[in-house]
Amino acid sequence: MNKDRLREWFDPQKRSLKELREIQHEAVKKIKLEDGFDKIETVAGMDCSYLDNRIICAMIVLDYESMEVIEKRHVVREVGLPYIPTYLNFREGCGIVSVFLKASERPDITIFDSCGINHPIRAGMAAYFGAVMDVPTIGVSKKILCGHAEMPTVPGEYHELMEDGEQIGWVLKSNKRSNPIIIAPGNKVSMDSSLEVVKHCLKGYKLPEPTRLAHNHAGEIREELKRKTENPE
Q1: Residue 202 lies in domain
Q2: Which of 65, 125, 142, 165 is 20 to 30 A from 86, alpha carbon to alpha carbon?
Q3: Rounded CA gap, 55 and 95, in Å?
């Protein structure tokens, strides 16, 4: 997809919220909830951090079996849109696309620290990005944005996240110390596979390794930028 086309999907430009919502609806039409991958050899994690008017988008690529880090990437950009609930696609999208395209090889699945189809119009960052880029994605979030579920209390326990009689994700108790996490397919990943993949990526922490390490990397870059701002050479 060329740069102009990517800009149409991810750059808010000067469009109204109504126009941006219409773009989200167009992306949702592209979502596929069947597995669009064969053997999983690599998995990536995506997360963002902020410093003043800048956004840091970080991506970590790991070997799926060993969870060893293969590659770290990040980009820093100016924020193009203030925080508006359910419009994260246009606040973080350009940065996420930029860092995704920097990877040496495209990962088999990308896990986002964000929602998938568990979004009021099914356009969480993982779902929207996956649909536009036509790649397999999963969303892992810390709070329920929409829907309802029984809350798991024992590590490893999980329940369906439902809305209007439709399953839109899972609620999983990933470890003893933490609140449950919310898992949902984004694109080209089935409901069952989204749970299976995230469970495989858990290594004793609340978050799966891909997004946990992406979060850490974004934080490291943020602190480095902060030090440079406070102590310019």
Answers
A1: 3-230
A2: 165
A3: 8
